[in-house]
Amino acid sequence: MTTFLDPLLQVADAQASATPRPVPASRVEPAPQVVRVDGVVKRFGAARSGVVALDGLSLSVRHGEFVAVLGASGCGKSTLLHLLAGLDAPSAGTVAVRGRAALMFQESALFPWQTIGSNVETALRLAGVPRAARRARARELLASVHLHGFEDKRPHELSGGMRQRAALARALAQDAEVLLMDEPFGALDAITRDVLHTELERLWTERGFTCVFVTHDVREAVRLADRVVVLSSRPGRVLADVPVHLDRPRRLDEPALNEVAAAITERLHTEVRRHAVH
User: Which residues of the chain are under the pLDDT cut of 70?
Assistant: First the structure.
Protein backbone atom coordinates (compact mmCIF):
# COMPACT_ATOMS: atom_id res chain seq x y z
CA MET A 1 0.00 0.00 0.00
CA THR A 2 1.25 3.48 -0.86
CA THR A 3 0.24 6.07 1.68
CA PHE A 4 0.67 9.76 0.98
CA LEU A 5 -0.99 11.19 4.05
CA ASP A 6 -0.40 11.43 7.73
CA PRO A 7 -2.81 14.35 8.30
CA LEU A 8 -1.73 15.57 11.71
CA LEU A 9 1.52 15.40 13.62
CA GLN A 10 1.70 13.39 16.83
CA VAL A 11 2.29 15.44 19.94
CA ALA A 12 5.63 14.93 21.62
CA ASP A 13 5.75 14.92 25.41
CA ALA A 14 7.12 18.17 26.80
CA GLN A 15 7.79 19.47 30.26
CA ALA A 16 5.44 22.18 31.52
CA SER A 17 6.90 25.67 31.56
CA ALA A 18 6.40 28.12 34.40
CA THR A 19 5.40 30.76 31.86
CA PRO A 20 2.38 29.78 29.74
CA ARG A 21 3.09 29.95 26.02
CA PRO A 22 0.94 29.32 22.93
CA VAL A 23 1.05 25.73 21.72
CA PRO A 24 2.64 25.49 18.25
CA ALA A 25 0.25 24.32 15.54
CA SER A 26 2.47 21.30 14.85
CA ARG A 27 1.95 20.12 18.44
CA VAL A 28 -1.83 20.28 18.60
CA GLU A 29 -3.40 16.96 19.57
CA PRO A 30 -4.82 15.17 16.52
CA ALA A 31 -8.56 14.59 16.41
CA PRO A 32 -9.58 11.17 17.73
CA GLN A 33 -10.14 8.30 15.34
CA VAL A 34 -13.84 7.53 14.91
CA VAL A 35 -13.52 4.92 12.14
CA ARG A 36 -10.93 2.15 12.23
CA VAL A 37 -10.74 -0.81 9.85
CA ASP A 38 -7.92 -3.29 10.50
CA GLY A 39 -6.99 -6.09 8.11
CA VAL A 40 -10.55 -6.62 6.94
CA VAL A 41 -11.39 -9.50 4.63
CA LYS A 42 -14.91 -9.86 3.26
CA ARG A 43 -15.80 -13.03 1.40
CA PHE A 44 -19.16 -13.83 -0.16
CA GLY A 45 -20.00 -17.50 -0.69
CA ALA A 46 -18.00 -20.64 0.05
CA ALA A 47 -14.33 -20.42 0.93
CA ARG A 48 -13.13 -22.05 -2.33
CA SER A 49 -15.68 -20.80 -4.83
CA GLY A 50 -16.79 -17.55 -3.23
CA VAL A 51 -15.91 -13.98 -4.16
CA VAL A 52 -13.41 -12.01 -2.06
CA ALA A 53 -14.58 -8.40 -2.12
CA LEU A 54 -12.07 -6.98 0.38
CA ASP A 55 -8.72 -8.46 1.27
CA GLY A 56 -6.63 -7.11 4.13
CA LEU A 57 -8.08 -3.60 3.94
CA SER A 58 -7.01 -1.16 6.66
CA LEU A 59 -8.24 2.42 7.01
CA SER A 60 -8.75 5.02 9.71
CA VAL A 61 -10.75 8.26 9.74
CA ARG A 62 -10.50 11.01 12.34
CA HIS A 63 -13.33 13.00 13.84
CA GLY A 64 -14.54 15.72 11.49
CA GLU A 65 -12.70 14.42 8.42
CA PHE A 66 -14.31 14.16 5.00
CA VAL A 67 -12.88 11.08 3.31
CA ALA A 68 -13.84 9.99 -0.20
CA VAL A 69 -13.42 6.37 -1.29
CA LEU A 70 -12.74 5.73 -4.99
CA GLY A 71 -12.22 2.65 -7.10
CA ALA A 72 -13.34 0.73 -10.15
CA SER A 73 -16.72 -1.00 -10.17
CA GLY A 74 -16.71 -4.12 -8.02
CA CYS A 75 -13.74 -3.09 -5.86
CA GLY A 76 -15.73 -3.30 -2.62
CA LYS A 77 -16.61 0.36 -1.98
CA SER A 78 -20.23 -0.32 -1.06
CA THR A 79 -19.23 -3.44 0.85
CA LEU A 80 -16.95 -1.30 2.99
CA LEU A 81 -19.81 1.11 3.81
CA HIS A 82 -22.11 -1.78 4.71
CA LEU A 83 -19.49 -3.04 7.15
CA LEU A 84 -19.11 0.42 8.67
CA ALA A 85 -22.89 0.75 9.01
CA GLY A 86 -23.13 -2.62 10.75
CA LEU A 87 -25.29 -4.12 7.99
CA ASP A 88 -22.76 -6.91 7.47
CA ALA A 89 -19.82 -8.42 9.33
CA PRO A 90 -16.27 -8.98 8.07
CA SER A 91 -15.04 -12.49 7.34
CA ALA A 92 -11.80 -11.54 9.09
CA GLY A 93 -10.29 -8.43 10.67
CA THR A 94 -12.03 -5.76 12.75
CA VAL A 95 -14.29 -2.78 12.09
CA ALA A 96 -14.91 -0.11 14.74
CA VAL A 97 -17.05 3.03 14.46
CA ARG A 98 -17.33 5.36 17.43
CA GLY A 99 -20.65 7.18 17.75
CA ARG A 100 -23.89 7.03 15.80
CA ALA A 101 -23.62 6.32 12.08
CA ALA A 102 -26.19 6.94 9.33
CA LEU A 103 -26.09 5.46 5.83
CA MET A 104 -27.35 7.34 2.77
CA PHE A 105 -27.81 5.45 -0.51
CA GLN A 106 -27.67 6.47 -4.17
CA GLU A 107 -31.46 6.27 -4.27
CA SER A 108 -33.26 8.40 -1.70
CA ALA A 109 -35.11 5.34 -0.26
CA LEU A 110 -37.86 7.60 1.07
CA PHE A 111 -41.14 5.95 2.07
CA PRO A 112 -43.42 6.80 -0.88
CA TRP A 113 -46.62 6.64 1.18
CA GLN A 114 -45.37 9.28 3.63
CA THR A 115 -44.90 13.00 3.22
CA ILE A 116 -41.39 14.41 3.23
CA GLY A 117 -41.95 15.73 6.75
CA SER A 118 -43.17 12.33 7.95
CA ASN A 119 -40.13 10.64 6.40
CA VAL A 120 -37.83 12.83 8.47
CA GLU A 121 -40.02 12.43 11.56
CA THR A 122 -39.77 8.63 11.31
CA ALA A 123 -36.09 8.76 12.19
CA LEU A 124 -36.89 11.04 15.14
CA ARG A 125 -39.74 8.81 16.32
CA LEU A 126 -37.43 5.79 16.36
CA ALA A 127 -35.07 7.83 18.53
CA GLY A 128 -37.88 8.46 21.03
CA VAL A 129 -38.38 12.17 20.31
CA PRO A 130 -41.86 13.38 21.46
CA ARG A 131 -44.41 14.19 18.73
CA ALA A 132 -44.41 17.99 19.07
CA ALA A 133 -40.63 18.15 19.17
CA ARG A 134 -40.43 15.79 16.17
CA ARG A 135 -42.46 18.08 13.95
CA ALA A 136 -40.46 21.17 14.88
CA ARG A 137 -37.16 19.35 14.43
CA ALA A 138 -38.21 17.92 11.06
CA ARG A 139 -39.13 21.37 9.79
CA GLU A 140 -35.79 22.71 10.99
CA LEU A 141 -33.87 19.94 9.24
CA LEU A 142 -35.79 20.36 5.98
CA ALA A 143 -35.15 24.10 6.10
CA SER A 144 -31.42 23.37 6.54
CA VAL A 145 -31.44 21.56 3.17
CA HIS A 146 -33.60 24.28 1.56
CA LEU A 147 -36.86 22.30 1.56
CA HIS A 148 -38.88 24.68 3.72
CA GLY A 149 -42.49 24.56 2.61
CA PHE A 150 -42.24 21.06 1.13
CA GLU A 151 -43.03 19.19 4.35
CA ASP A 152 -46.44 18.01 3.11
CA LYS A 153 -45.28 16.89 -0.34
CA ARG A 154 -44.79 13.22 -1.15
CA PRO A 155 -41.56 11.93 -2.72
CA HIS A 156 -43.04 11.56 -6.22
CA GLU A 157 -43.89 15.27 -6.22
CA LEU A 158 -40.22 16.27 -5.87
CA SER A 159 -37.31 16.27 -8.30
CA GLY A 160 -34.46 13.79 -7.87
CA GLY A 161 -32.24 16.44 -6.28
CA MET A 162 -34.97 17.45 -3.84
CA ARG A 163 -35.53 13.83 -2.85
CA GLN A 164 -31.81 13.47 -2.10
CA ARG A 165 -31.97 16.62 0.02
CA ALA A 166 -34.86 15.08 1.94
CA ALA A 167 -32.86 11.86 2.38
CA LEU A 168 -29.96 13.92 3.71
CA ALA A 169 -32.29 15.65 6.19
CA ARG A 170 -33.52 12.23 7.34
CA ALA A 171 -29.92 11.05 7.83
CA LEU A 172 -29.14 14.20 9.84
CA ALA A 173 -32.26 13.58 11.95
CA GLN A 174 -30.46 10.59 13.44
CA ASP A 175 -27.91 12.99 14.96
CA ALA A 176 -25.27 10.93 13.21
CA GLU A 177 -21.69 11.62 14.15
CA VAL A 178 -20.52 9.59 11.15
CA LEU A 179 -22.36 10.02 7.84
CA LEU A 180 -21.80 7.17 5.37
CA MET A 181 -22.74 8.10 1.80
CA ASP A 182 -22.92 5.52 -1.00
CA GLU A 183 -22.75 7.42 -4.33
CA PRO A 184 -25.61 9.67 -3.17
CA PHE A 185 -25.47 12.01 -6.18
CA GLY A 186 -24.55 9.48 -8.88
CA ALA A 187 -27.97 9.47 -10.57
CA LEU A 188 -28.32 13.27 -10.74
CA ASP A 189 -27.46 15.69 -13.52
CA ALA A 190 -24.22 17.67 -13.33
CA ILE A 191 -25.80 20.98 -12.29
CA THR A 192 -27.89 19.40 -9.51
CA ARG A 193 -24.85 17.47 -8.28
CA ASP A 194 -22.83 20.69 -8.08
CA VAL A 195 -25.58 22.38 -6.05
CA LEU A 196 -25.73 19.42 -3.65
CA HIS A 197 -21.96 19.38 -3.31
CA THR A 198 -22.21 22.93 -1.98
CA GLU A 199 -25.08 22.03 0.36
CA LEU A 200 -23.29 18.97 1.74
CA GLU A 201 -20.07 20.89 2.30
CA ARG A 202 -22.00 23.65 4.10
CA LEU A 203 -23.76 21.17 6.41
CA TRP A 204 -20.51 19.30 7.09
CA THR A 205 -18.77 22.57 8.01
CA GLU A 206 -21.64 23.75 10.22
CA ARG A 207 -22.35 20.47 12.01
CA GLY A 208 -18.86 18.98 12.23
CA PHE A 209 -19.80 15.37 11.47
CA THR A 210 -17.37 12.87 9.98
CA CYS A 211 -18.14 11.80 6.41
CA VAL A 212 -17.11 8.71 4.45
CA PHE A 213 -18.25 9.30 0.87
CA VAL A 214 -18.14 6.56 -1.76
CA THR A 215 -18.08 7.70 -5.38
CA HIS A 216 -16.86 6.62 -8.80
CA ASP A 217 -16.39 10.28 -9.85
CA VAL A 218 -12.79 11.42 -9.30
CA ARG A 219 -13.52 15.14 -9.62
CA GLU A 220 -16.41 14.85 -7.16
CA ALA A 221 -14.07 13.18 -4.67
CA VAL A 222 -11.45 15.92 -5.00
CA ARG A 223 -14.16 18.62 -4.87
CA LEU A 224 -15.42 17.42 -1.49
CA ALA A 225 -12.79 15.48 0.43
CA ASP A 226 -9.89 16.15 2.77
CA ARG A 227 -8.49 12.79 1.67
CA VAL A 228 -9.18 10.49 -1.26
CA VAL A 229 -8.69 6.78 -0.55
CA VAL A 230 -8.17 4.80 -3.75
CA LEU A 231 -9.03 1.09 -3.68
CA SER A 232 -7.49 -1.54 -5.90
CA SER A 233 -9.57 -3.64 -8.26
CA ARG A 234 -11.18 -6.68 -6.67
CA PRO A 235 -10.26 -7.75 -4.14
CA GLY A 236 -10.26 -4.27 -2.63
CA ARG A 237 -7.20 -3.04 -0.79
CA VAL A 238 -6.05 0.52 -0.09
CA LEU A 239 -3.95 1.40 -3.12
CA ALA A 240 -3.34 5.06 -2.21
CA ASP A 241 -4.37 7.61 0.42
CA VAL A 242 -4.14 11.06 -1.18
CA PRO A 243 -4.42 14.35 0.75
CA VAL A 244 -6.29 17.20 -0.93
CA HIS A 245 -4.57 20.42 0.11
CA LEU A 246 -6.89 22.84 -1.67
CA ASP A 247 -8.65 25.79 -0.12
CA ARG A 248 -12.41 25.63 0.38
CA PRO A 249 -14.84 26.28 -1.16
CA ARG A 250 -13.69 24.51 -4.32
CA ARG A 251 -14.93 24.65 -7.90
CA LEU A 252 -14.93 21.77 -10.35
CA ASP A 253 -13.34 23.96 -13.02
CA GLU A 254 -10.35 24.97 -10.88
CA PRO A 255 -7.02 24.05 -12.56
CA ALA A 256 -5.53 22.88 -9.25
CA LEU A 257 -8.51 20.60 -8.56
CA ASN A 258 -8.31 19.10 -12.03
CA GLU A 259 -4.57 18.55 -11.65
CA VAL A 260 -5.13 16.45 -8.52
CA ALA A 261 -8.03 14.63 -10.21
CA ALA A 262 -5.91 13.86 -13.26
CA ALA A 263 -3.16 12.30 -11.14
CA ILE A 264 -5.67 10.10 -9.30
CA THR A 265 -7.38 9.15 -12.57
CA GLU A 266 -4.07 8.03 -14.06
CA ARG A 267 -3.46 5.88 -10.97
CA LEU A 268 -6.89 4.29 -11.41
CA HIS A 269 -6.29 3.68 -15.12
CA THR A 270 -2.99 1.97 -14.30
CA GLU A 271 -4.74 -0.25 -11.76
CA VAL A 272 -7.55 -1.18 -14.16
CA ARG A 273 -5.03 -2.04 -16.89
CA ARG A 274 -3.01 -4.15 -14.46
CA HIS A 275 -6.13 -6.00 -13.35
CA ALA A 276 -7.25 -6.57 -16.96
CA VAL A 277 -3.90 -8.18 -17.83
CA HIS A 278 -4.26 -10.63 -14.95
Answer: 1-28, 275-278
- Residue span of the structural domain in which 126 resides: 110-176
Q: Are residues 197 and 272 in the same domain?
A: yes
Say what the alpha-carbon torsion angle 206, 210, 215, 218 is, to the nearest 10 degrees: 70
Residue 273, amino acid: R
Q: Does residue 169 sit in the same domain as residue 189?
A: no
All residues at 6 or more sequence positions from 251 whose CB lies less than 8 Å from its CB, including other chains: 223, 257
The rounded distance, in Å, linking the Cα atoms of 270 and 263 is 11
Single residue among 160, 176, 192 that ends a domain in this structure:
176
Predicted local distance difference test score (pLDDT) of residue 128: 84
Q: Do residue 69 and residue 188 come from a single domain?
A: yes
Question: Amino acid identity of 275?
Answer: H
Alpha-helical segments (H) within 127-249: 131-144, 160-173, 190-207, 218-224
The pLDDT, as a whole number, for residue 7 is: 28
Confidence (pLDDT) at 92: 94
How many structural domains comprise the chain? Answer: 2
* pLDDT confidence of residue 19: 37
Sequence length of the chain is 278
